[in-house]
Protein 1
Amino acid sequence: MALNELKSVTAGQETLPAVSIGQWRHKHVLDLDDFSREEINLIFEITDAMVEVLSRDVKKVPTLRGKTIATMFYEPSTRTRASFELAAKYLGADTVSLDAAKSSVAKGESLVDSLRTLQALEVDAIIMRHPCSGAPYIAAQNLEISIINAGDGCHAHPSQGLLDLYTMKKHLKDLGGKKVVLVGDIMHSRVARSNIWGSRGFGVKLILCAPPTLIPHGLKQMLVECGLDHVAIEHNLDKAIEHADIVMPLRLQKERQQSGLISSIRTYIRQYQVNSERLERANPGVLIMHPGPMNEGIEISHEVAYSSRSLIEQQVTYGVAVRMALLYLIAGGKNR
């Protein structure tokens, strides 16, 4: 397909709406720090077309027919892995799904050798998750094919950052001046990092709220040095949540509960759980998001998670459409 246009293509009676894609310069999707606002808006324009495809009875177009997309996950995943695999299949691609625990990795094969094996099998792109921060960058440096980072350690989760921002835009329209609160384990959250980079340039006021022990050392200085003046840090959730338009709690991982970074789970719940009482401080139309999986009763109450203001299930649906857009741009939207 031509680089300057996402053309209508036919699958029986189904077509993919034509969307102008302009210039796309990315071979890989490793994080959002090198994406401009214009490029993110391009992804969202294509995502709109993919949402329309997902609304059909037959959720399939042949846009990536003849392409092969591989997933290589070194960590457990439900939402991300399933949505990438569904995204590839809905676009007509073949998929190869490898579980690192059952692959030659278990026999001592290195990351690069495993990925080079996939490249030798002539896959068109690899979607990878790895517990070590920076692993997708090593892959990108050593392979000729495209790499999409599905989460690396505590570093980045770009597709999650994109689907979070897309969800916000779909429900709030103009994000200028909107207050978004991320609350929880900021220190170990790759989701928080990708949201920080992805939201810059959109006029969002992003508040990071956590106990001091769950805020990365030197974060405030880094925000200044990187010109991320749309981000602020607040330790008091009651204060942070005042006049908020969106509140997104982050999962408190069990290892953080046992590592001494919080005094007790009971104290954390009392000070940082997003519940109905606390949301009374926010704007009347405040919306709730969560990247999943949720620890109900810890970072978020059950009644809030399943209330009418919750966008959590919508995030999952939009996640497939966003990943369809990324796969199109990476595997099908460029001249080869």
Note: The chain has two domains: 10-153+318-332, 160-305.
Protein 2
Amino acid sequence: MQLIITDPRLSRSYVLQTSPGGLALALAGFFIALTLVSAGIYHWILLKGAREGWPVISQVMRLVVKDEFDQRDRYLRENIEVLAKRMGEMQAKLMQMESLAERVSGLAGLDPAQVRSTPGRGGALVAGRAMNLQELQSIMDHIEVDTSARNDLMTAIESRLFEQKIKKLMIPTQIPVPEVSTGSGFGWRIDPFTGMSALHQGLDFPAPVGTTVLSAAGGVVVTQEVQANYGLVIEIDHGNEVLTRYAHLSRAFVKKGDLIKRGQKMAEVGNTGRSTGPHLHFEVLVRGVAQDPQKFLAMGRSESDKTAKR
């Protein structure tokens, strides 16, 4: 392709040789350069007009900026509404936690009135205005304080319940020889050796030699020895001045100083000491005074019945 350039002022004409592709590239470059120059001039005019307050340009810029601020404000309002809804859900869950804490506090031996940290509220629902960021932040701060208080409260309840559980485990309510009928009970009876009235300070469980003997509660072994009256005997200290005694044993699997768990196998029934036949003699002493073991074992049966009903 040839381009011939002529002009009266030129002494001769010029001929440019080009291909169709080169011509297309030249035109494209021209239009790109023209677009860039136009955009630069437009930008310069807008900046200059906005800075110097040209009427038309200033009005256009105000409309653009106002629209942008309106979009931002709409976006913030929508997000605040979503956050406010989430805050309401969190407050509802906190109220449920408070209600649960009130119910559990009774089991822990705490006064439910002390657990309730927020007063009762209510009334007719009247639609109000949307919250702003400051109000939302204030609610978040209150929720943080309430959450911390609930955490401390639940920790206290957990500690109290754990303490009660430990105390229950330390009370001798486990039958030491399960599935065995009892023999001589606690109280006055005719002594099998002398034939005279004598106080029987424990509860007998007749069973074959070698029958398993379980610990009635958790504690520490304070005695494991052979005595004239009791034969091979084990005594366990359960704390709070409560002690259990297991007498006439044939074998012992624990020694003095051992920690014992409730229901742990620790010995076997025997016929040692002052005994007329194989059986376990079981005693419960509180502050050194013998108590009727049936009162403690009845507590264990009652707890088992309650658990079975649940």
Note: The helical segments are 20-52, 55-108, 112-115, 133-169, 293-309.
Protein 3
Amino acid sequence: MSIKALHSEAPEELWLPGNSSCQGCGSTLALRWVLKALGKKTVIVSPASCANVYIGWWPRSSASVSYFNMAFAAAGATASGIVAALEYLNKKDVNVVTWAGDGGSVDIGIQALSGAAERGTNFIYICYDNEAYMNTGTQRSGSTPMGAWTTTTPFGKRQNKKNLAMIMAAHNIPYVATACPSYSKDLYEKIKKAKDIEGTKYVHILAPCPPGWRFDTELTVDMGKLAVETGMWVLYEVENNILSLSPPSKRLLDASKRKPVGEYIKLQGRFKDVKDEEIREIQRWVDVQWEKYKKFEEGCPVY
């Protein structure tokens, strides 16, 4: 399906222009397609993040759906309460969605998310991952990649990023997926699938961030594609404990088809102090991860 066909299938724009996001924001690009897939009968819960800023002030909100700004640690618990209230009212056609950054998911919000997943709460938890605490000035998160500059890692982060999607798969929930707005068809279709599945669904979206990653704003879509093409970001779904790679990533099981990670890293100012040896270390880490994905694709259970 082409982008034109996607717009024809879901013509209504529920994410409105004139919002206060940064130019080239990967998060708002993703949210536009998420709302197209979900439709108007949607309630969004958003913990402290960039989203609390770019959503705007009522009654001139940027989203044409119900939107709850929430404390950093409480998104999963708040969504659980909304789901319970809707079930009590016998309203079964409303999508309850958490829209949270990596700080509010990978770090601060993981306990409420884990609790909701353990209870089997019927909602979609979406983490838009811009790989740092961008709203408060670019501090390191558990999702910041190795070597990246942040204000709290001025010489580059020393650890690889946490794989929250796999952590959520280990909760034995019915659906886990990764996505990127550079692949809008893939993102749209995964959200449409998630909304029709009963139980807790988790979708982790890479959201390139021009000011935080330090690249030109017109490169957002290209940056997301390069993250996938180098294998730094892998697109997949996990259903019934079985992982399947999405088409843009599946072809990269052949390592020769992956671009060197240096092509991705050297376009971003946050990696400006990374040495060649560190790039080689990141490349080795990526290659090791792909050996795991190869086993998953061959049918090895995720957990």
Note: The CA atoms of residues 50 and 135 lie 5 Å apart.
